[in-house]
Amino acid sequence: MRAIRNTVDIGRIVVCTIHQPSIEIFESFDELFLMKQGGEEIYVGPIGRQSCELIRYFEAIQGVSKIKDGYNPSTWMLEVTSTTQEQRTCVDLSQIYKNSELYRRNKNLIKELSAPPEVALLFGTMFWGIGKKRQNQQTLFNIMGAMYSACMAMGVQNSSSVQPAIFVERMVFYRERASHMYSALSYALGQRIPLWWRWYYWMCPVAWTLNGLLTSQFGDVNDKFNNGVSVSDFIESYFGYQHDLLWVAAVAVFSFAILFAFLFGLSLRLFNFQKR
């Protein structure tokens, strides 16, 4: 349990099932998900220091006996939530939980975490309705600028958000490599391959992405500008993007993902920042 606690302290989430733990082990957990027979929730929330949060919740229920000094809170919890105890007190603990403030707080938290942030609000207002204006080439350049800005912003944002996870994974990898369980390449192939690596194209990574985006959206559009040139012909003559070769961009993007996955594994194998 000390090893698990140390793992949690570096920012990882650990889910365990426990059966009649000691007081020390039980109080090493931060939160408890308690279900009764049938899978209905009885308590989902923090345990608290010396199980104070858990004890306060159940002692507030009418008919539940108070915990004795020095008594194991996990044992007491199982006793007061048993089916026999529910029948004796005529109390439905799952219904009490559903009517509690703790339940409403958990539901609000789930709803808040499930709603994606409106990252596209900035670009949506900057380039609102621009796709309907194709009277000249400048409008197409503006659309391309919007795509470029969105790709760069998403790439930087995703790169920043993944850095803490990579830092934690590096610690895990050092520990596992010391046990000689598997090679660095196996570990690398087992990892969340970052999606933005698929955007890289030759020496200018964003180029393949813009190629695929612009070609897929406008490469087959036959509407004409006010100078008589169609959108598809202009994209092919000015940018060199051909709709028939859209699959090449897809292959290039996929190839870069494989390349960087290989470089990731190779780097883990060759570079070691640990000092003995």
How is this structure best described in words?
The protein is mainly α. It folds into two domains: 1-110, no CATH class; 153-271, no CATH class. The protein is built from 13 helices and two strands. The protein has a two-stranded antiparallel ribbon with strand order 1-2. A hairpin with a 5-residue loop joins strand 1 (31-35) and strand 2 (41-46). Helix 9 (137-178) packs across helix 11.
List keywords for this structure.
mainly alpha
Query: Total domains, how many?
Result: 2
Shape: elongated
Oligomer type = single chain
> Residue-averaged pLDDT, rounded?
80
Going across the major beta sheet, what is the strand order?
A: 1-2
- What percentage of amino acids are in beta strands? under 5%
Q: Helical content, roughly?
A: 55-70%
Give me the number of helical elements. Answer: 13
Tell me the series of helices and strands, N- to C-terminal. HHEEHHHHHHHHHHH
Please count the beta strands (DSSP E, at least 2 residues each). Answer: 2
| Unreliable residue runs | none
Query: What's the story with the biggest beta sheet?
Result: 2 strands, antiparallel
Report, as a whole number of angstroms, the end-to-end distance: 26 Å
Structural class: mainly alpha
Radius of gyration: 29 Å
Give the SSE layout:
Blueprint lengths: L1 H8 L13 H4 L4 E5 L5 E6 L5 H8 L13 H8 L2 H7 L3 H6 L2 H14 L6 H6 L10 H42 L5 H7 L14 H14 L12 H8 L7 H25 L6
Antiparallel strand pairs: 1-2
